[in-house]
User: Which sequence fits this backbone?
């Protein structure tokens, strides 16, 4: 008969805290046996499951997602691991970009000179992108996250710079047209440009579009630096006007 371990013994054996085991139990990740008086008991086979949890957690996969991986098929775990690999590859790409930007700043800094401000700005932008990578994931389904990881291959620095300019130009043009009838030709042309830019991010995918909508509805809870970056696009009248233009376009069609 396999030996049973009380929670403190098992925690020492596994190299984790008792608190962590309690947490995994509450989440349904690692359910121990119970004595008649309610004390937790673990088999040695539970150690393999715990090692899987710790390894997946180390990779940055949220505990709730790990639970879903265990509840579903082995293919679900494979899909989640592939998605996490893509996330880590993107983090590596961003870190490489930050390192290259810092190297350029180092080269441009000769004695008595200051580094180019554009290079310093690039360093800040890349590091902020690294910091902001994970906060928006909660708004998207696992399927949408996987699709977004594929679409990130299109998000080169050149494309991002071009899209940023197009958004700034469009936002400025909509502000200039706030007095227009939302059903007018001018308003509908602006709505069409808006839709095209959104689809440049979503690829027209409904799951990504749904996650994007949830994210924008939760703007007050965005990280402070993201809210600061979006400050030029904070005019509520612009967003309201575009929604009216979309509605007018649907009515007309």
Assistant:
């Amino acid at each position: 008969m396999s030996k049973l371990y009380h929670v403190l013994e098992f925690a020492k054996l596994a190299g984790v805290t008792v608190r962590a085991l309690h947490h995994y139990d509450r989440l349904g990740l690692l359910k121990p046996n119970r004595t008649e008086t309610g004390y937790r008991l673990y088999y040695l086979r539970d150690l393999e499951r715990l090692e899987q949890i710790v390894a997946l957690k180390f990779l940055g996969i949220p505990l709730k997602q790990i639970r879903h991986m265990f509840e579903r098929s082995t293919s679900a775990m494979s899909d989640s691991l592939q998605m996490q690999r893509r996330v880590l590859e993107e983090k590596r790409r961003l870190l490489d970009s930050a390192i290259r930007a810092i190297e350029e700043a180092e080269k441009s800094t000769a004695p008595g000179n200051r580094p180019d401000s554009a290079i310093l700005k690039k360093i800040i932008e890349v590091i902020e992108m690294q910091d902001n990578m994970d906060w928006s994931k909660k708004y998207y389904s696992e399927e949408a996250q996987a699709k977004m990881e594929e679409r990130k291959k299109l998000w080169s620095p050149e494309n991002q710079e071009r899209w940023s300019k197009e958004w700034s130009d469009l936002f400025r043009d909509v502000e200039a047209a706030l007095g227009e009838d939302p059903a007018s030709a001018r308003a509908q042309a602006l709505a069409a440009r808006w839709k095209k830019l959104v689809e440049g991010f979503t690829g027209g995918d409904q799951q990504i579009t749904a996650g994007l909508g949830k994210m924008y509805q939760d703007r007050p809870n965005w990280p402070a630096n993201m809210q600061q970056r979006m400050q030029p696009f904070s005019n509520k009248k612009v967003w309201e006007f575009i929604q009216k233009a979309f509605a007018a376009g649907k009515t007309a069609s």
In short: The two ends are 73 Å apart (CA to CA). The beta strands are 4-6, 33-34, 40-43. The mean pLDDT is 79.
